[in-house]
Amino acid sequence: MALKRCKECGSEVSDQAFSCPNCGVPTPALDEDQVENIRQQGRFAQSRWFGGLLFFGGLAWLFFSAQSGGADGLSVLGRSGT
Ligand SMILES: [Zn+2]
């Protein structure tokens, strides 16, 4: 844990601090671009989570559609060959 200067008021705050004890600014030890990086990482993690949800949703859909009529569909395909 290190002390850094608050980006707003310049007083010393912990780099782990969520807000400056002097002026109350959030994440006082982080520069604006660092805060933006963290925001973008959060957005990236969110989109990855959403992509995973879609992926598993698709797998579940394939699984259930194969259980309900999937075998019939395959036999129909087999018959159409003859
Ligand atoms: Zn401050």
Overview of the structural elements:
With 82 residues, the protein is mainly alpha-helical. It has one domain (3-69). It has 2 helices and 2 strands. It has helices at 32-67, 70-80, and strands at 3-5, 12-14. A two-stranded antiparallel ribbon has the order 1-2. The longest helix has 36 residues, at 32-67. Zinc ion binds next to loops.
Oligomer: single chain
Q: Strands of the biggest beta sheet: in what spatial order?
A: 1-2
- Quote the distance from N terminus to C terminus: 75 Å
Low-confidence stretches: none
Count the E strands. 2
The rounded Rg comes to 27 Å
Descriptive labels:
82 residues, mainly alpha, two-stranded antiparallel ribbon, 2 strands, binds zinc ion
Outline of this structure?
The chain is mostly helical and 82 residues long. It contains two helices and two strands.
Topology:
Blueprint: E1 3-5, E2 12-14, H1 32-67, H2 70-80
Antiparallel strand pairs: 1-2
Bound molecules: zinc ion.
